[in-house]
Each structure stands twice: as C-alpha cells, then as structure tokens.
Amino acid sequence: MKLKNAIYSPQYRAFIENIAGLEAGSLTDEVDCAANCHTRGCHLLCHDDVIGTRKVSYIIYLTDATPEWTDSDGGRLELYEAIAEEDRFVPGALPVKTVLPAFNSMAYFVVEPGVSFHSVQEVFCDRPRLSIQGWYHTKEAPSQIENATLQRLKSTGKGENTEGSFQPIADETTSATAETNENETGAEPTFSSEDSKFLGEYINKAYLTEESLNEIRTRFEEESSVKLRHFLNHEWSSKIKVAFRREDEKDKVGVNNPSLDYHVGINEKWKAVGPAHKQRFLQYQEGSVSALSAKKASSDDDVDVGEYLDHLKQNLFQSVEFGRWVGWLSSLGFPLGYRGRIRRFRPGLDYTVAHYGILTTNAVLDTTLCFCGGEGNQCSFDEETNELIGSDDDAIWESGDVGGFECYIEADDDDEGAEAEYDEEDDTQLLSVSASFNTLSLVYRDPGTMKFVKYVGSGAPSSRWDIALEYDVKTDDDDEHQLPLATTDEES
C-alpha cells in the first residue's frame, strides 16, 4: 500500500509527467496496477497497451537480487520500431531494443495508439519474473485510437490482410495428363491413373488407392477436416528430416535451448516476416525449381530444407494433378486458385495471431504439410496415468504444452467498443491441429473463421516447418462444410 500510494501521489505523478514530456497536471489520480508473476514459458506477444485512457505504462521489476537476472533467464521487455505504412504505423518483425528485468529497476513508456509496440520475451528459467505493472491515466482517450492494436486486430480494412492474393494453378496444358475441359475450375475433377503415377513420385501410395481415397473423402465430408499422417513417401520425408535437423542443430534451438539471438536462422533465403502484432516467422524466398535439380547430381548434405519444400510447393502442390486429387478428395472441385508460403517457426520466437484481416470473402481449403521433431505417429491416451503414450517428441507436440498447433476460431461479431481487450480465447474454438512430422492437414474454412499458429515455446523438440497453402474453392452450399464446434484434429 505504501508503494502504491507513493507512485500515485501528486508529487510522483508530476515527476512522471516531467520525464515523459507531458503537460503538467495531465495525469489523473486513477490507480491502475497489479502484481504479475511470469514463470517458465510465460510470455506476452506484441501489442501497444492502448485501452481506454491509459497514457503511461510502467513496470517495477522485483526479480531475484542474487543471483542477478541474466540474458539466459529470458523475460526481457521487448520494444519495436514503429514503421510507417500508408496512413498508420506497424511494428517491425523483430524488437530493436530490449530491457532486462533487473531487480529494483523501473521501465516506463508513453502509451500511443499504433506506436508503443512492445512484448515480453518468454521466461526461460525456473525463477519467477515478479513485477508490479500498471498505468497512469488521462481524462480522455487518446486521439487516433482506431490505430490501436486491439482495433487493428478486429479490422478488415485496407492493409490488414497478411495473406496476399490468389494465383491460378499452372495452366493445365503444361500437364501431359490433362484432358480437354477436364479441369474447369470448380467442376468435379476426374482423378486418373496417370495422376496417381505422377503423385506417387512424392506421396505415400497408401493415399492413392481407391479404397483410401473413398474413406478420406467420406471423412472429410462428415468432419470438414482430415489429417493425413506419413503423407510424403520415405524418400522425400527422410531427406527433409535430415535437412531440418541439421538446421536446428546448427542454430542450437529447441529442447529448452532457446536462442538469445532474434536473427537466428535469418539469411538470404529465409527472411523474418511481420508485423509483430500479427505474426512472426521465417519465410523461405521461393526461387527457381532448377536450383534443387542442379544439386541432385551431387549430395543432399548441402541442400537447405527450404529448397526441398520449395520444390514440393512448386512441383506438387501447385500442379494440376494435385489440384485434381485434392478437389476430388474434398468433393469441393478443382481449385479456383491458390496462395501460400513456406514457413519456419523457431522455438522461443515465432507465432501467428488470429486477426480479422485474414477473414476471406469465399470459402478456402487450408492445405498444410507440417514437419517437426518426432515420427508423426498418433499418440494414445492412458486414462490411468493421464498421459499421452507415444514417442516423446510426438507426445510433446500433441499435448499442446509447447504450442506450435494451428487453431481455428470463429470470429466474434460483437462490437464491444474501444475499451474491450482482444483475446483469442474469447472467440469460439472450432478445431485444433497439432504439429506432427510429415503430416498433411486439410481443413475447410468458411468466411467467418480465423486461424493462428500458437507461439512455439523454447521447450519444443524442434522448429515447426511447413508448406501452408490455401485453395480458393467453389461450393454450392457453404453450410455443408462448416466446422463443428470444439473439434480435435481427425485422423484418416
């Protein structure tokens, strides 16, 4: 109480006004503070703190005095540059300044809509990150509050879409197996033996038999989603596993070995993607398919995992043959177009956030091929021990404790005003798809559904790597494929 009375006293408020460059007497006597305890794994993603009449944010750190808090303990306050974009500002993908939560120190910043971007780094140690955190208020809400993080996440306006535009699938005349008018967009495709032969160069042949195709199609029609484990054949899955393990080992990430370098894994091929209030991950810069072909003559030892994924994206997922396969399998017809990218989510660093800018005007078929540590097997649940049974890495991913899962939620149409605080968990969860090695997930997403990849914790067995595509699909009755509430990922 003595501390609270002291920091909200007229004298101390005048001191804060002076050092923050505010007009004298602008801060009110409203008290707004709380004690916070962040334990191992806790973190806060990028936001600007703008709610109501908040004007100055402060944090008083009460971490252990001895031993001193160090970089390896994590929990830093992360500050972002506000980058001009059209008529507003956005945060960069990576923080430009960090503050260690040293004992008996205080950090503060002026709260400004769409400017005061900050986050809290994951706590990597078993010691608690204790703090007293709060705000000083003014009488009125700030101007341009429409640029605040909260409002931006719930906006569908210009500049809020992070996904890009759809591209047509390769001209069917480039495929030797195409037949005249066979692949009219939106039409029921014919899946031929020649298609099966082509896809068999990449895909596990168990997913190309008539029996399995019919079984998967039935499951998808019932659930609007399906998860296909061990999707690629052994040749492709094994060399991708070797390549991504090599990258993670080189970068020394995963298995409670967090990188203290925000730039880890970034190079001329892999670029960090933001803005941080919506997403952060590394995206592979797609190039010519000839790059991988040239290296095939030598050794796989120097092939970047991104080159393998790029080859698959261009030659498999963007092919007419795959369009016919997925169109028939989903009963949604040949895709009208596609968009997507190759991503890496680094442990202790990366995530995406559900926001209204990714809502689509038409239904899409999300098609995501995931790679991560583990064998990609389905774990069973032991009711006596209350534990998942399977390989350690598979069980860790499936538990969800280290994040990395892709979650689908229904957008909330309620307008709660400027003082509402956005929380992904407030929206209705429809489906959660855990990360799993060499596993393809197909999910029908209607225009009212958002998705996000949960922050990958430093305790994850590996990075999460994926080829994430959306196919624009045509349906006569969108209601036929709506996701049921509270669904877990289904197996084929």
Describe the model.
The protein has 492 residues and is α+β, with helices and mostly antiparallel strands. The chain has helices at residues 2-7, 10-19, 149-153, 193-199, 210-223, 234-251, 290-296, 305-317, 320-330, 392-399; strands at 33-38, 44-47, 54-61, 77-79, 82-85, 88-91, 97-99, 105-110, 118-120, 129-137, 225-228, 270-273, 279-284, 337-345, 351-352, 364-371, 380-382, 387-389, 406-410, 428-433, 439-445, 449-453, 464-472, 487-488. The strands form six sheets. Strands 11, 12, 13, 14, 15, 16, 21 and 23 form an eight-stranded antiparallel beta sheet that branches. It is globular, with a radius of gyration of 25 Å. 42% of the residues are buried. Residues 172-183 and 415-422 have low confidence and may be disordered.
Task: Name the descriptors.
492 residues, 8-stranded antiparallel sheet
Give the gist of this structure.
With 492 residues, this protein is of the alpha+beta class. The protein has helices at residues 2-7, 10-19, 149-153, 193-199, 210-223, 234-251, 290-296, 305-317, 320-330, 392-399, and strands at 33-38, 44-47, 54-61, 77-79, 82-85, 88-91, 97-99, 105-110, 118-120, 129-137, 225-228, 270-273, 279-284, 337-345, 351-352, 364-371, 380-382, 387-389, 406-410, 428-433, 439-445, 449-453, 464-472, 487-488. Strands 11, 12, 13, 14, 15, 16, 21 and 23 form an eight-stranded antiparallel β-sheet that branches. It has a four-stranded antiparallel β-sheet with strand order 1-10-3-8, with no helix packed on it. Strands 2-9-4-7 form a four-stranded antiparallel β-sheet, with no helix packed on it.
